[in-house]
From TrEMBL:
CDD domains: NAD_bind_m-THF_DH_Cyclohyd. Belongs to the tetrahydrofolate dehydrogenase/cyclohydrolase family. Gene3D superfamilies: Leucine Dehydrogenase, chain A, domain 1, NAD(P)-binding Rossmann-like Domain. It comes from Nocardioides luti. Pathway: One-carbon metabolism; tetrahydrofolate interconversion. The lineage of its organism: Bacteria, Bacillati, Actinomycetota, Actinomycetes, Propionibacteriales. The gene is folD. This is Bifunctional protein FolD.
Length: 281
């Protein structure tokens, strides 16, 4: 058996086409969405991600404002840029690319919650816990959207999330246990005693540990859906958390690259458009 591919690249393309229509409707009504990014330092990976986000925006008619600061930038200098973007009406939403090497909680908190396109602002995460409407975190929502668009059943599914990071594992459990998703979630982490036993029971596995190949074929229930979220670099090449032999056992697998990464970008675009539509009323 070979698993069906959960194709994030193709899904990003489809979502961009849908969003382009909505952006042109906004523009007809005089609203021009604009994404701001603040990037600190010269990590090549971070530069690639930010560049990709601006290219995506240009393709669908979203303006962008790019602020690149040197690795020597201080907390106060980054905060000054945040204040500027908070006040700039042309910037309808923005993000501070992580990691910055600075006090990230202070930076996140300083962003106007109404301009939080990442869904990582304390107010946005608090709204998620409280069940109120707000920006949703891009990577975990991208996981759910990727499953939905490939008709993987979520309601009632046993989901094992591997990794408790703030951008994926922690918020994903909150999203998947909403009534609209209705999944049962087990959150595994480095303190989990027997990872294999949990994974073997799962209909959906979300591997977000950042440990190359941590999920192997022998651990996966035949027919399960496996999302490869972890990104590590091994000899300069992207290595995911999912070993190659999982494709022989699983029903669906998201490749890495080409899976959840592009979906993160799709959900960022979707957040920008949603926020502009909301501002319109
Ligand atoms: N404030 C903030 N918001 C983020 O959304 C954010 C962040 N900080 N810091 C880093 C992570 C990582 N991230 C990715 C985005 C796109 C791909 C992506 O599109 N990857 C492609 C290609 C990867 C490649 O070839 O290098 C793929 O998976 O196919 C991956 C990872 C957003 N992040």
């Amino acid at each position: 058996m070979t698993a069906q591919k959960l194709d994030g690249t193709a899904t990003l393309k489809a979502i961009k086409a849908e969003l382009a229509d909505r952006v042109s409707k906004l523009r007809e009504q005089g609203v021009v969405p604009g994404l701001g990014t603040v990037l600190v330092g010269d990590d090549p990976g971070s530069h690639w991600y930010v560049g990709a986000k601006h290219k995506d925006c240009a393709e669908i008619g979203i303006e962008s404002i790019r602020v690149d600061l040197p690795a020597t930038a201080t907390q106060a200098e980054v905060e000054a840029e945040i204040d500027r973007l908070n006040a700039d009406p042309a910037c309808t939403g923005f993000l501070v690319q992580q990691p910055t090497g600075l006090d990230e909680f202070a930076l996140l908190s300083r962003v106007d919650a109404d301009k939080d396109v990442d869904g990582l602002h304390p107010v946005s995460l608090g709204k998620l816990v409280l069940g109120e409407e707000g920006s949703l975190p891009c990577t975990p929502v991208g996981c759910i959207e990727l499953l939905r668009r490939h008709d993987v059943p979520i309601a009632g599914a046993e989901v094992v999330v591997v990794g408790r990071g703030l951008t994926v594992g922690r918020p994903l459990g909150l999203l998947l246990t909403r009534r609209t998703e209705n999944a049962t979630v087990t959150l595994c982490h480095t303190g989990t005693r027997d990872l294999a036993t949990h994974v073997r029971n799962a209909d959906i596995v979300v591997a977000a540990a950042g440990v190359p190949g941590i999920i192997t074929g022998a651990m996966v229930k035949p027919g399960a859906a496996v999302l490869d979220v972890g990104v590590s670099r091994v000899d300069g090449k992207i290595a995911g958390d999912v070993a190659d032999d999982v494709w022989d056992v699983a029903g669906w697998v998201s490749p890495n690259p080409g899976g959840v990464g592009p979906m993160t970008r799709a959900m960022l675009l979707s957040n920008i458009v949603l926020m502009a539509e909301k501002a319109l009323g």
